[in-house]
């Protein structure tokens, strides 16, 4: 079905609050997953992105969830259907058309950077 989701992940510690974002795309039996520290803005500069271990499909349907082991709280902030415009789904280089509220347009991942643009 080609679902994707953007999760806000808050990690609490005694002295700070760390917030990052997890971007997941459905990949058959699981989800390719990347982390970024700030949201990509439409037609702006590329931002740094970090490949993470693949996540379970259940994350595509969760809207919020307290993580076990005091690892924080996750809340879905955007989601939708993607169109893969790459030759294949590859964690090093992918291109998607996204239809979300925050992430919409042409989303390209190349190595450790990503960029969101209006035009393909």
Which structural class matches the secondary elements? mainly beta
Total domain units: 1
User: Percent helix among the residues?
Assistant: under 10%
Ranges where pLDDT stays below 50 over 5 or more residues in a row are: none
Number of strands: 10
Largest sheet at a glance?
Answer: 10 strands, antiparallel
**Quaternary class:** single chain
Mean pLDDT: 91
Q: Count of DSSP helices?
A: 0
Radius of gyration: 14 Å
Question: Could you say which overall geometry the principal axes of the C-alpha atoms support?
Answer: globular
What portion of the residues fall into strands of 2 or more residues? over 45%
| Element order: H for helix, E for strand | EEEEEEEEEE
* First-last Cα distance: 21 Å
Tell me about this structure:
With 120 residues, the protein is mainly β. It has one domain (3-117). The chain is built from no helices and ten strands. Strands 1, 2, 3, 4, 5, 6, 7, 8, 9 and 10 form a ten-stranded antiparallel sheet that branches. It is globular, with a radius of gyration of 14 Å.
Summarize this structure as a short list of keywords or feature phrases.
120 residues, single chain, mainly beta
Topology record:
Elements: E1 3-12, E2 17-26, E3 31-36, E4 47-48, E5 50-55, E6 64-66, E7 73-84, E8 93-99, E9 104-110, E10 113-117
Antiparallel strand pairs: 1-2, 1-7, 2-3, 3-5, 4-10, 6-7, 7-8, 8-9, 9-10
């Amino acid at each position: 079905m080609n679902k994707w989701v953007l999760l806000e992940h808050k990690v609490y510690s005694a002295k700070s609050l760390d917030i990052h974002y997890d971007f997941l795309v459905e990949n058959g039996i699981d989800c390719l997953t990347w982390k970024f520290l700030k949201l990509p803005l439409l037609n702006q500069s590329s931002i740094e992105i970090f490949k993470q271990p693949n996540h379970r499909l259940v994350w595509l349907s969760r809207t919020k969830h307290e993580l076990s082991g005091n690892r924080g709280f996750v809340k879905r902030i955007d989601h939708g259907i993607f169109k893969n415009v790459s030759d294949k789904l590859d964690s090093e280089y992918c291109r998607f058309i996204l239809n979300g509220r925050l992430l919409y347009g042409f989303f390209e991942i190349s190595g450790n950077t990503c960029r969101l643009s209006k035009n393909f």
